[in-house]
Amino acid sequence: MDLRALRAFVEVVRRNGFSAASREIFASQPTVSKAVRQLEDEVGLDLLHRLPHGVRPTEAGEVVLRHAQAMLASRDTMLAELDALRGLTRGHLRLGLTPFGSAALFAPLVGRFRAAHPDITIALLEQGSLTLSEAVLGGEIEMAMAILPIAAGLEWQPVWDDPLVALLPEGDPLSGREAIRLEELRDRPLILFETGFALNEVIQRACAARGFAPREAARSGQSDFITALVASGLGVALLPRLMVAPRAPLSMPVALVEEPDLRWQCGLIWRQDGALSPAARAWLEMVRAALPLRR
């Protein structure tokens, strides 16, 4: 099978359509459609349900998708091993970073890595932890930042263990406290995070352990906007202390949330079944040296 056709099919499924897939692989939409149709002709089965608003893989499509992702990942591993023979004079680092915490933890290291390896191209994907985990498992990127819990099939290098702090609106009865318990936020509206952010699950699981569900006031993937929503009085936000400390002093009350099961534990993830490229190994070594697990 043609690996280009397999990649076109994988991107059509991943991007939920031919137009988005064509932009991702820098090919025209007719070219992508033709590649998928030729693949269907080759296997003798329809691989996609073509819906009014997107696509969905058929049962045969699910089989092809699973094997296509594995074949594309194997190709990337082969190229990585060839890069290893050439050394780090060239290569690619396909890295995923979350919007939360990356500026403080990894932005300086990206600049240092680029200076040390100027001929390594760096492709960054910025998404929530859950989305990045899927991208690593699917072979879209090689390594990513993520927070616990880690999905099956992934290796994990811990980097940071941080408590959460509560950003409180002015005048909140909890204002003035240095530390609070999660139970005290039971009746307050919370500003949560967009779909794909694993921190939502951490918060929801901790609330459930205390017998309540968080009252959702809004969702956002941008820490600045979340802070502004708190300042407007919309609700309380729970953020890693690392992200709040550089903003101090804030114009709103901040209190440590003292709960052992409510922490932001982040690190780097990569596939268990694939060899890391020389570029990814160099990045991992740099992170291990600069950011041994801290709390």
Characterise the protein shown here.
The protein is α/β, with parallel strands linked by helices. Among the domains are: 64 residues, Winged helix-like DNA-binding domain superfamily/Winged helix DNA-binding domain (Arc Repressor Mutant, subunit A, Orthogonal Bundle), CATH 1.10.10; 103 residues, 3-Layer(aba) Sandwich (D-Maltodextrin-Binding Protein, domain 2). 42% of the residues lie in helices and 24% in strands. It contains eleven helices and twelve strands. Strands 3, 4, 5, 6, 7, 8, 9, 10, 11 and 12 form a ten-stranded mixed beta sheet that branches. α1 packs across α4 and α2 crosses α3. It is globular. The mean pLDDT is 88. This is HTH-type transcriptional regulator gltC. InterPro entries: HTH-type_LysR_regulators (IPR050950), LysR_HTH_N (IPR000847), LysR_subst-bd (IPR005119), WH-like_DNA-bd_sf (IPR036388), WH_DNA-bd_sf (IPR036390). Pfam families: HTH_1 (PF00126), LysR_substrate (PF03466). It comes from Roseomonas mucosa. One of its GO terms (molecular function) is DNA binding.
CATH second-level architecture of one domain: 3-Layer(aba) Sandwich
Low-confidence stretches: none
Radius of gyration: 22 Å
- Individual helix count: 11
Structural class: alpha/beta
Taken as a percent bin, the fraction of beta residues is 15-25%
Q: State the CATH class of one domain.
A: Alpha Beta
End-to-end Cα distance = 49 Å
What features would you highlight for this structure?
two-stranded antiparallel ribbon, alpha/beta, 295 residues, 24% strand, ten-stranded mixed sheet, 11 helices, transcription, D-Maltodextrin-Binding Protein, domain 2, Arc Repressor Mutant, subunit A
